[in-house]
Amino acid sequence: MNPTTPSARGDLESFLDHIAPRNLPFIKHTDEGEDDSPSHMKTLLVNQSMSFIVDSGELILGTWQGIYLCEFRDSPKQRNILIKFVAD
């Protein structure tokens, strides 16, 4: 993995916190905590589904590309990941 990945991840987290902070004055939906609405907003900004190329058993990504799994809620949640392979 690229040694700059931690700084890239930090930049992405900072960006999402900047674009959807918890203290927005219009937020009303806080049924499950102060992270409730900002979590939904951040989810709108990231992919829910992705496609990748695997060639000869190797995941094909660019030099600076990576795959990030995001959880925006404070408390731990159980999530499922579906991986489907489609061959040519």
Overall geometry comes to elongated
Beta-strand residue percentage: 5-15%
| Helix and strand composition category | mainly alpha
Helix amount: 25-40%
Low-confidence stretches: none
Rg over CA atoms, rounded to whole Å, is: 16 Å
The termini sit apart by: 28 Å
Number of helices: 2
Note the run of SSEs as H and E. Answer: HHEE
Describe the structure.
The chain has 88 residues and is mostly helical. 28% of the residues lie in helices and 7% in strands. The chain is built from two helices and two strands; from the N terminus they run ααββ. It has helices at 5-19, 36-45; strands at 53-55, 58-60. A two-stranded antiparallel ribbon has the order 1-2. Strand 1 (53-55) and strand 2 (58-60) form a beta hairpin. The two termini are 28 Å apart.
Write the layout of secondary structure elements.
Blueprint: H1 5-19, H2 36-45, E1 53-55, E2 58-60
Antiparallel strand pairs: 1-2
Features:
88 residues, elongated, mainly alpha, two-stranded antiparallel sheet
What is the compact description of this entry?
The chain is built from 2 helices and 2 strands, in the order ααββ.
